[in-house]
Design brief:
The chain has 301 residues and is α/β, with parallel strands linked by helices. It has nine helices and ten strands. It folds into two domains: 99 residues, no CATH class; 155 residues, 3-Layer(aba) Sandwich (Rossmann fold), CATH 3.40.50.2000. Helices cover 38% and strands 12% of the residues. Helix 1 links the parallel strand 1 and strand 2. The relative contact order is 0.13. Keywords: Glycosyltransferase, Transferase. This is Alpha-1,2-fucosyltransferase.
Length: 301
């Protein structure tokens, strides 16, 4: 038996999906059963996730590397602990089956977003949260999303551009000038993920939630645009993210592209807002450092 006893306690929703999917894949590959603790999101899916027996003893298996590493299990009970963020761990058919939403949820989403889904569309998943100015994560700005759309979808002006985000105001400030843009507001993670499962073409960020929106929705004809990497700096060197994005997804480097001058208003506004954001971040960072320094000095007295 293979379990993931820390499900729900390690990371957010996107992380949970990776932990479940990888547990299932590793278990099936090794001819083991799998089970999980109670999970708050289980009620939204058709599959009845088996519950693990807390009374049993389990051998702990820790993730040794961020990139894919083959895991072989002998007989016994095992408990995974780590991120396991690679499709290479999955049994794709089993995971697709386990993450099918209940019909009533899909129907609600289809009704609510009937207009957005009425013609060909591209879903753009913008995740910001704790990613902005995070020293560990590769940084994406407005240029990435805009250029990923305009450089990779020749018919983008004839499609509906569906923006979903944990900071939808950011999307509106930058992209509301686009007449074919729709902004998904007041929606929870389940509704957003269910919407993603109905879409086929994507521009995603380097968040696990964006990853899953694309993975659950893609088909053989899909085009998924993703960042060139997940992590950056020394952290990225230590944690090799080579297996994070599926190879079939298209890496897009916005640094090598320029926005056309006819969109100068977007450039001016985008750079202005980015400058304000950076000043605000470094101000907060400086205040924290000063407070930490003062506490250190006071502690010496």
């Amino acid at each position: 038996m293979l379990v993931f006893s820390r499900l729900g306690k390690k990371g957010n929703f996107g992380n949970h999906l990776f932990q479940i999917a990888s547990t299932i894949g590793i278990a099936i590959k090794n001819a083991h059963g799998f089970a999980f603790p109670r999970w708050e999101y289980a009620k939204y899916f058709i599959y009845d996730f088996p519950l693990y027996d807390e009374k049993l003893k389990y051998h702990l298996i820790k993730e040794n590397t961020y990139h894919f590493s083959n895991i072989e299990l002998k007989e016994g009970n095992y408990d995974l602990n780590g991120w396991f963020q690679s499709e290479k761990y999955f049994n794709v058919d089993a995971v697709k089956m386990c993450f099918k939403f209940r019909p009533e949820i899909i129907n609600q989403v289809k009704i609510k977003y009937k207009k957005a889904l009425s013609k060909k569309y591209i879903l753009i998943s913008v995740r910001r949260g704790d990613f902005v100015n995070n020293p560990y994560y590769f940084q994406l700005d407005y240029k990435y999303y805009f250029l990923a759309i305009t450089r990779n979808f020749n018919d983008w002006q004839n499609r509906t551009l569906i923006f979903t985000s944990d900071d939808i105001e950011y999307c509106k400030k930058h992209f509301q000038f686009l007449p074919n843009a729709i902004f998904i507001e007041k929606s929870n993670v389940i509704e957003q993920l269910a919407l993603g499962s109905l879409c086929h073409d994507f521009v995603i960020s380097n968040s696990t939630f964006s990853w899953w929106m694309a993975w659950l929705g893609e088909n053989k004809e899909s085009k998924v645009l993703r960042p060139i990497k997940n992590f950056r700096g020394k952290f990225g060197t230590i944690n090799n993210d080579k297996d994070y994005f599926p190879e079939r997804w298209l890496a897009f480097n916005s640094k090598s592209e320029r926005i056309e001058l006819k969109y100068y208003k977007l450039i001016v506004k985008g750079e202005f807002l980015k400058a304000i954001e950076n000043v605000s971040y470094y101000y907060r960072f400086s205040v924290k450092e000063v407070k930490r320094f003062i506490k250190k000095i006071i502690g010496r007295k």
